[in-house]
């Protein structure tokens, strides 16, 4: 099974935006690690929105 290129682009943009990481750093992550960081960033966003 392959991982859709548009999904990788979405994850890369999300992590670059929220963590200020460059594209190469995000793409160097293993798939599972990248997904874990996406979940962490999403949790931070949700927490910040809840504090408003």
| Alpha carbon gyration radius | 12 Å
Distance between the termini: 41 Å
Instruction: Please mark out the parts with pLDDT under 50 across 5 or more consecutive residues, or reply none.
Output: none
Q: Which outline best applies?
A: elongated
Helix content: over 70%
Mean of pLDDT: 92
Helix-strand string: HHH
Q: Characterize the largest beta sheet: strand count, sense, and whether it forms a barrel.
A: none
Q: DSSP helix count?
A: 3
Number of strands: 0
User: What is the strand content?
Assistant: under 5%
Query: What structural class should be given to the helix and strand makeup?
Result: mainly alpha
Describe the structure.
- By secondary structure, the protein is mainly α.
- Helix content is 77%, strand content 0%.
- The protein is built from three helices and no strands.
- The chain has helices at residues 5-19, 23-27, 31-50.
- Helix 1 crosses helix 3 (31-50).
- It is elongated.
- The termini are far apart.
- The mean pLDDT is 92.
């Amino acid at each position: 099974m392959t991982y859709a290129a548009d999904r990788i682009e979405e994850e890369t943009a999300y992590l670059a935006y929220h963590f200020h990481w460059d594209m190469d750093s995000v793409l160097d992550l293993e798939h599972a690690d990248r997904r874990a960081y996406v979940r962490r960033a999403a949790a931070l966003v949700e927490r910040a929105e809840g504090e408003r």
